[in-house]
Write a structure and sequence with these properties.
This protein is α+β, with helices and mostly antiparallel strands and 140 residues long. It folds into 2 domains: 1-40; 42-139, K homology (KH) domain (GMP Synthetase, Chain A, domain 3, 2-Layer Sandwich). 33% of the residues lie in helices and 31% in strands. The chain is built from 3 helices and 6 strands. The strands form 2 sheets. The protein has a 3-stranded antiparallel beta sheet with strand order 1-2-3, with no helix packed on it. A hairpin with a 7-residue loop joins strand 4 (71-80) and strand 5 (88-99). Helix 1 (42-65) packs across helix 2 (104-118) and helix 1 packs across helix 3 (120-126). The protein is globular and about 50 Å long. The mean pLDDT is 97. This is OsmC family protein.
Length: 140
Amino acid sequence: MAHKVTTQWKGNMLFESDNPSGHNVLIDTSPENGGNNDGLGPKALMLSSLAGCSGLDVVSIMNKMKVTVDDFKMDVVGELTDEHPKYYHSVKLDYHFYGADLDEKKLQRAVDLSVETYCGVMEMFRRFAKLEINTYFHKS
């Protein structure tokens, strides 16, 4: 199975990229790099892709397990190399679950299944970065 995206230059440093979903995303850079910050930075977009991929897995697994939470978020921090080409050499992904009655065992299992088995973006990151995964439970 192949995915195809088309990325069109929109002037200056701005690009618009489509997606097989039918939605588009703007990609730009900071003013110090000649852009206007009118879109997402390409490297940070990779971190969003990682969180989005794993988050979709976790929610799908939670639904199958009939586990509910009041809220769920992920924080991702990527550390770039000093030398060009700069890439993420280490990435920390923190899962945060919020609720009054959290089933910590099932939620951790959902995270583990995503991290170890299902998330293809996670596997891609493993090829070039050291990953640190943490799960936090916040009782409300």
